[in-house]
Amino acid sequence: MKSGTCTANEDVKTRVDMYRFLSSVYLYPPREEIIRQITAENSLDELSCLFGEQATEGLRGFASTLNIDTDLALLTQEFMDLFKVPTGRYVTPFEDVYRGAAASGKQGKGPLMGEYAVQVKKMYRQAGIEIEKECLEIPTHIGVELSFMCCLCEMELEAIRKNKAAVSLEQVEAAYVDSIGCHKFQARFLNEHLTEWFPQLGKSIQAKTQSEFYRSLAIITEKFLVQDAASLSDVDL
User: Fold this and answer.
1) Number of domain units in the chain
2) CATH number of 130's domain
3) Fewer Cβ neighbours under 10 Å: the N or C end of the chain?
4) pTM for the model
């Protein structure tokens, strides 16, 4: 059962980092170090390899004219306009709104803290993760749901580490069961929640943002979620 542990460990660590980064994109205004990191040439090349050039061409254009002092202020305002202040360009980043939307795709049909909030809060409790104590946003905020996936990946990573350190068959089997449980829970949350509604939010962000930075990150988020859901379903458990 320990064969491939190193590879599995690296793969899950990468997913932890990606979910943590994407969660921060939607929960907090961008910081200088994040902007510089994401627009570095090696980062852009890696993202392009993973998600295609279309997903990164906007970021490349943004990077080519980057003036950190000016752009940091502009992106902070863009973050507020898109994700915080309910005015003309606010995208309402909550699952409830998009899952409750009418067939026409219009926003505002789903009540906040309704049935989808009940569902995700139940899954948070089942996983033993108390996200609400660490975050002021409501449970169905996109950043909170991505943070939950990050926590689940961290739990899987810990199970893999326990497997590697195990000195008895019982310990190996217990760690393996924990890893499988985390894996299945991730697949369930992606399929029942994130991949069901983020594409609509992503389209809203792309339509309303004035920045290639957020337009590209919306594309990357959707591609990552779809790829991750597919990779989880492809694994023979």
Assistant:
1) 1
2) 1.10.3480.10
3) C
4) 0.86
